[in-house]
Amino acid sequence: MKFDTLKQWCIKKKWWLAATAVVLIAYYFCLPKQLFTSPTSYVLEDSNGDLLNASIAPDGQWRFPYNAHVPDKFEKCIVAYEDKRFYYHWGIDPIAIGRAVNQNARGRKVVSGGSTLTMQVIRLSRNQPRNIWQKMMEAVLATRLEFAASKKKIIALYAANAPFGGNVVGLEAAAWRYYGRKADLLSWGEMAALAVLPNSPALVHPGRNRVTLLNKRNQLLNKLYRQHTIDSITCQLAKMEPLPDQPLPLPQEAPHLLDLFRRDYQQQKTDEPTRIKTTLQADLQHNATAIAERYHNAYKANGINNAAVLVLDVETGNTLAYVGNIYHPSDPELESHVDIVQARRSPGSTLKPILYAAMLNDGLILPNTLIPDIPTQIAGYSPQNFDLGYDGAVPASRALARSLNIPAVRMLQQYRYERFHSLLQKMGITTLNKPADHYGLSLILGGGETTLWEMCGMYASMARTLIHMDQYKGKYDMDDIHPPNYRLNIQHPSKYGLSKDGLLDAGSIWYAFQAMTEVMRPGEELLWQQFSSSQRIAWKTGTSFGFRDGWAIGVTPQYVVGVWVGNADGEGRPGLIGVSTAAPILFDVFRLLHTSGWFSTPYQQLKKIEVCRKSGFRAGELCDEKDSIYVPAAGIRAGVCPYHQLVHLDRTGQWRVTEACESPSLMQHKSWFVLPPSQEYYYRSKNYYQQLPPYKPDCLASLGQDKAPMELIYPRPGARIFVPVEIDGKPGQTIFTATHRNNATKIFWHLDNNFIGATTEFHQMALHPAAGKHIITLVDENGERIEQSFEILDKERE
Hints:
By secondary structure, this protein is α+β, with helices and mostly antiparallel strands. The protein has four domains: 1-30; 35-239, Penicillin binding protein transpeptidase fold, CATH 1.10.3810; 352-590, DD-peptidase/beta-lactamase superfamily (Beta-lactamase), CATH 3.40.710; 708-798, Sandwich (Immunoglobulin-like), CATH 2.60.40.10. The chain has a five-stranded antiparallel beta sheet with strand order 7-6-14-13-12, sandwiched between helices. Strands 20-26-25-22-23 form a five-stranded mixed beta sheet, with no helix packed on it. A three-stranded mixed beta sheet has the order 2-1-5, with helices on one face. The longest helix has 28 residues, at 2-29. It is an enzyme of class 2 (transferase). This is peptidoglycan glycosyltransferase. One of its GO terms (molecular function) is penicillin binding.
């Protein structure tokens, strides 16, 4: 009998143990892994954690993401007002429950509740009807939450999710909406006013029921005084503070970066908070925005409506200011929602310094190598300089400083546009994603599209490479080539390590930046460098075809600043030129930044050689004026000066002679700087140039064809010419241009063997040949003759 009783007891005990285990397991797993799943606002903060901007959550609520930090004032206020034994109970306060039951029974209505802060957190997370059953569930889940989270976290969960009236949820949003500043900066009176709101957010909504709100706030302040949390003076002063009025707008800095963060976040499909601490500096962001706005007000009279500014830190690539556009959302015609920093636009001439550095890097040119600047047509492509003029020949550095188009195209032809396209992609320009043939030689003049973001990133990578030369002991780190970053504390992964070669060597980059300092600043004299207060800046402007985009990019060892001006819809405007619209903004932004020194000369990456002073090439034996300069290491392979010739003169030095007409004993020999006739024609009008003396008359008969002094400048051999219709509807004309070393010589012009005229000194002829192929023939009065074929295109046929 006893055995049966014991057996039954054991069976019952097992059932009790099993039931208990089930209950405990259910209790353990009853708390959701994530209590709150409501959508949150996207929040943008600067590098110090101060709010820059925020967007309303998808459900229409101002609800900031969870923040573990809770101001001490709020913690003291909410505990005193809602749950004074919060730190002593395990989620349920029996004393508060007993008091609530007693008060409600006496009043025969709900006078007070017995919910603890922990239970309120559970209620806020579940959003269920308020009844006895739900109260019991909240009590169970509250005890479980007490096991799972610290008191600090429970307070933080409450602060992030409690309702504060209207569509404002959470302490952070409430502080900004009602007081216009972060919660940490609120006073005792302001914090007390917010602390009483979650208890009855509809009843005491700011702007209504002012007396009720005032009484509740003051009662809480009195309670804090009785608890010795605040002294009497603080209490009295806090009671005198005004109550919050209508909700205030949140800060609206960097709205386009906020949109970029939202897009990036949604593409990543992450569970991370919708809050980002950026690398932006709030003061710089605000001031850069104000500068862009000021110039917008000046430019809008000309129909130029949009502008963008980007400021990067060179060392880290961090974004310090991001003005994506003029922000006037109430005016849809301005299209201020377009983020110009990320928009693909024609870069104009802003790629020219990269080509200059690349050619120095490969030894194809030296810093001041003469580049032809003459009428040019390459496979039907005829670039023009901005001023429609020609220099004949111009030093490469000066061509860059003056942003001449024809020398740039000729340089790209020599470097090859396929290589340049590949280099730009390696430097971080991802938007040039079509084959190189799609862009051709026009790539150097803005024939492709890129973004202000990638352009500034590329220049920052170049500057970073240069400033790291000493640190890396003359080696290169390919990890220095990386895009800009706007997230704080993001480290770019190391993939390459140090190597002896870089995409561009330091010497080439240094020379490119040197050339970029020679550009005259808008509104300043050419000798601005002489003023010690002027910040030394390497800068480049760009203007796209049709005056649609104005660019300016500036570089110092510490900063890169990029500016774009134009219309978001691509409409061109007269006067929309980079140097006159974007450059003034660039220098105003640089005035906001700390001045810094200049890049150290990377002598370990340079070699000293002799160069011809007149041509900029490596000095040859005939070069009579030479300079010893440091050049990029590859410069030792650069070409030797082709322009100095040994000239034979008679005794007087006035005539050139040959052995066929003059005794060698009567000759004098002299080195002479001689440009090709097409270059000489323009060069001599802008530079000191000593022309070759003419041949002695009795020597002319002995000259061969290779000595011909005449050249047809335009059109070039095999040119295909399209002649546009003038504004009055009449067919346009083609200006044929030739040059002769002897200005006084007369040239006779023939078109298809028909004489059409003669010229002296200025050899130009305006013609209107019919569509089709033609031959132009020039004969000088000495019988020298040149012939060239060309084709006039038929517009209808083309």
